[in-house]
């Protein structure tokens, strides 16, 4: 059974991986763990159990020193966010943690989605973060959907267990450059992969692209050896995820502070 704690740990791993791939870093203050994402000029506070001014003040000071333009906080729904309001944080949309076996979304067509490590249309911070898909051994894969030759959507698949394999191990999805995709690994019971940053352009919604991304992500996760998927869905996207086999396992909290 997938727990909220497992989803939160997966999310933390993903953000730390993203920071490492883009020249960022992680650091800790009193009871607070932070990730610096330089491409977005964003500081992130990761799932504090208790908000302590002794941890928040030095964290924000370090963010200002680094040049942060915004600060985000991801929290368990059971934790109190009230102390953050004193620092000017505001609540954002409530994230919904959902999970499904990798077999569920694969029942739907993935034809419009593909692994796409360097799409030319992706620019700015998103382009800088494509570096997360170039590490070896690879643990993250960037996906896109296209319609009429145009980019319509994108998402990331992340399986942290792949990073623990020997550095000379082949990419579990593609084998290695120029070689056909490797056979799917036998799923590891309890192994959890994540879908992050799934988005479809406003003019392309309700045309199957979100479904294709979920289906392709499930296939990639299965090939890497995961047997379950987690996604941190926004309220607007939870209906699609539920229709494609994902079940709600818990709710979180998201807060933000604009430093500009």
TrEMBL record:
Domain of life where this protein originates: Bacteria
Region spans: Disordered: 166-187
Domain N-acetyltransferase: 102-260
Molecular function as annotated in GO: acyltransferase activity
Residues of the signal peptide: none
Entry EC no(s): 2.3.1.-
Protein name, UniProt field: GNAT family N-acetyltransferase
Native species: Arthrobacter gengyunqii
Organism ancestry: Bacteria, Bacillati, Actinomycetota, Actinomycetes, Micrococcales
